[in-house]
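Q: Sequence in, structure out?
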Amino acid sequence: MASKEDTPAYIMDTSDEITRLSYNHALFKDAMGGNLVLAPIDFSSGPKRILDSATADGLWLRDLAATCPVDHEFTGTDINPAQFPKDSVANFSYRVQDVHGDWPVDWNSRFDLVHQRLGLAASGPRTQDVVKNMARLVRPGGWIQFVEADDHESSDAGPMWKQNMILFRDLFKAMGSRYSSGDEIAGWLRDVGFEDVEEKVFGLRFGALNPNEELARKGVISSRLGLQQLCAIAKTFPPGAISLSHEELDRLPVEGPLETEKQGHIMYMRAVWGRQRA
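A: Exactly. Output:
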């Protein structure tokens, strides 16, 4: 994540945001066929060292650990320690880390898997540097995986979701970043010597488009919580930075979730993974 001082995204530093992230985690897992890792890693052997950057409350790490037959070493980092788990678990550790700052020297070539999900869009204009610095943390033969938004919009998307996408693009542009940098990651990884680089685009199904009733419900709630916070953030930007009017920003958190409940929407993502040369 970018520094707290550099971006208003930390208006989203609330318990509602953790709820939204946990619901989105379930939608990610559903869209990825029940998998959290698409890189071909054998978690039955080990132990392995696994890093999750922008970990928030560590849910991704805990969920991955629950599927592993071996007690691996799990490390979570985030610029904001407020949501780190309070309970101490032997093979879990958490550390405050700004992706723009220097990573610990002894972490170079340390990890079997380095993972980050939806952390690049808020990293500002130095996204490529963030990717390269994280790539240094992967041991020879180890893997890195990024999951980022893909700027694709279904032709049958409803008007509220189209406004939502405009809001996403405008917000990240105003922060000097892009809503979707996922299409550049594969090239950046190859530039620093990674091999077997692959990518996959998939869609998170929100609301009425998700056949699982519980996931459909979570998608509607997630949409509402996200829009409430994003629209509040958008109002803090100078005039002209955001295409939507204040009246549209007032309506979107109300009408957007209703559209999601009745019509649904698909939020496209791009997973990119690659192997550090042995």
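The radius of gyration is 18 Å.
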